Amino acid sequence: MKRQRCRGLVLIGVGLLAGCAAAQLNPGAAQVRITTNEPQGCKYLGEVTGNQGNFLTGGFTSNANLETGARNEMKNEAAKLGANTVQMLTNRAGQTGSMSFSGGTGGGSTEQTNVTYTGVAYKCPEPK
What we know:
single chain, alpha+beta, 4-stranded mixed sheet, elongated
């Protein structure tokens, strides 16, 4: 019984550590470029979303990894559609906070725990 509990704790620990790393780019997604302007002369393929972090692992993940992971997921989704360009529509950062009151005084803190990017995927002509 003790051995099973230890295995469970090890798996939870490994899961938390894995949550700290940014999502990786899939093959082909590295060529997807992100722009804030609507590209001209391109074919619309659909909307894409990328997300990194949650209330459990987000506090253990750096802001840079949260942002990189969300961007990588969005590019992965665009590449699945055959896109080579994403127009960024929104970027949101979620925060989790805590408050405590003791002896008539209170305090609290917040931390960024997730990042979500939403964009529009396009297939654009390759530059000559």
